[in-house]
Automatic annotation (TrEMBL):
Superkingdom of origin: Bacteria
Broad EC category: hydrolase
Family: Belongs to the PRORSD1 family.
Keyword terms: Hydrolase
PANTHER family in UniProt: PROLYL-TRNA SYNTHETASE ASSOCIATED DOMAIN-CONTAINING PROTEIN 1-RELATED, YBAK DOMAIN-CONTAINING PROTEIN
Residues annotated as domain YbaK/aminoacyl-tRNA synthetase-associated: 23-149
Record EC number: 3.1.1.-
S-adenosyl-L-methionine as UniProt keyword: no
Organism whose genome encodes this protein: Parvularcula dongshanensis
UniProt protein name: Ala-tRNA(Pro) deacylase
Length: 166
């Protein structure tokens, strides 16, 4: 089974309703403006970051400027948070830059991502949109469905305002 079909099967297994919309390839939040205009709900950006010992997945509202220093403090990170390399994205989540998505957690068989942080600025929207492991489509789920998916595939899931973490 290909990876995207496996994703849809997993969403089905978890009872998470979803809909997918095909579009041109987008690599940044700015490039996706035209796509977002046609899709109501919360549009995301997903960042894989690391400290000296752990990986963290930050799932933010696309327009939010993530406070990495504040997030690091809130998570008790060892040292500064920095972006994971393309090699780490590929090895851990099985995706490339521009296609990072919380759905890729299902590829992290060793659960190397320690914590997923869901931005409260994003989860107030319904639905919320993510790439289905490729950047030529967007898949919508409810915030509750997102939380259920992440809880199934991550060590820990937290909620925080990623622009101003406490």
């Amino acid at each position: 089974m290909d990876r995207e079909a496996a994703l849809y099967a997993e969403l089905g297994r978890l009872g998470i309703a979803h809909v997918t919309h095909e579009h041109e390839a987008v690599f940044t939040v700015a490039q996706s403006a035209g796509v977002k205009a046609a899709l109501p709900g919360g549009h995301s950006k997903t960042l894989l970051v690391k400290d000296k010992a752990s990986l963290f997945l930050l799932v933010a509202l696309g327009t939010v400027r993530v406070d990495l220093k504040g997030v690091g403090r809130a998570l008790g990170a060892r040292g500064r948070l920095s972006f994971a390399s393309a090699e780490t994205l590929s090895n851990v989540l099985g995706v490339t830059p521009g296609s990072v998505t919380p759905f890729a957690l299902m590829n992290d068989q060793d659960r190397r991502v320690r914590t997923v942080v869901l931005d409260t600025n994003l989860t107030v929207h319904d639905p919320v949109w993510f790439h289905p492991l490729r950047n030529t489509a967007s898949t919508a789920v409810s915030p509750e469905g997102l939380r259920r998916f992440c809880a199934e595939h991550a060590q820990e899931v937290r909620d925080a305002d990623l622009a101003a973490p406490a």
